[in-house]
Amino acid sequence: MRSKLFEGILCASLTLLALPALAQLNAGPTRPQVPLPEGPIRNVLFKNCVSCHGIDDYAFYALARERWESILGELHSGMKMKKMSDQDETLLLDYLAENFGVEATPFPRRYVPPEIDTYYDDLKGHEVLDTICSECHALDRVYETHGSLARWRVLLLEMRARGAELPDDSDMERMAEWLSRVQSANLFE
Q1: Helix extents (H) in the chain
Q2: How far apart are CA 46 and CA 67, in angstroms?
Q3: How far apart are CA 123 and CA 182, in angstroms?
Q4: What is the CATH number of domain 40-99?
Q5: What is the pLDDT of residues 95-115, one digit of tens each?
Q6: Which of 4, 15, 28, 125 could disulfide-pair with 120, CB 3.0 to 4.6 Å?
């Protein structure tokens, strides 16, 4: 009986020690996550865009309306697809210019998470929340958010692009790892 209990405790301990490394293995690529908008533009995207590609790639750009019009023409030239109605094209270009225009901060195309071998403990994680995150957010909002390491990376990259003081990639990665550990909905999502 004692042997089984010891084996169980040992197995649980080893699993807990492996969680940070396991989380990094399951992180996947860091990509923007653009929510599907509501209203008439949603139908335009479903009818004209998402049957071939997602909308997350839009976040890699920060272009003027005219450049969006040009790039859409360039990317779709030579494809056998139905021409978008003028009304749909106007809605799409308005949406792109408003959400991914020259005032936007493009999502980094080649963010490579640095390998880390030191991790934030709860004290350091809460310190970052209290000093950096709380400048813009009520901490309740942070504690209500759950996600994988990849999702926290995306959120932190977006917050850094909006001015959050997470300048060092290693510190940002440590914070993402800590958040994924303490605020994970599911480690394997």
Answers
A1: 2-25, 40-48, 65-76, 86-99, 122-131, 139-143, 149-161, 169-182
A2: 22
A3: 12
A4: 1.10.760
A5: 999 999 988 888 777 777 888
A6: 125
Q: Is the pLDDT reported for residue 81 higher than 90?
A: no
How many CA within 13 A on the CB side of residue 28?
12
Both structure tokens of 188: 């394997």
* Angstrom distance (rounded) from CA 132 to CA 117: 23
User: Residue 38 in 3-state DSSP?
Assistant: coil
Looking from the CA of 67 toward its CB, the CA atoms found within 13 Å total 10
The kind and range of the H/E element at 189 are none
pLDDT of 58 over the 50 cut: yes
With cut-offs at 50, 70 and 90, classify the pLDDT of residue 185.
low
- pLDDT class of 80 with cuts at 50, 70, 90: confident
Cβ proximity of 26 and 149 under 8 Å = yes
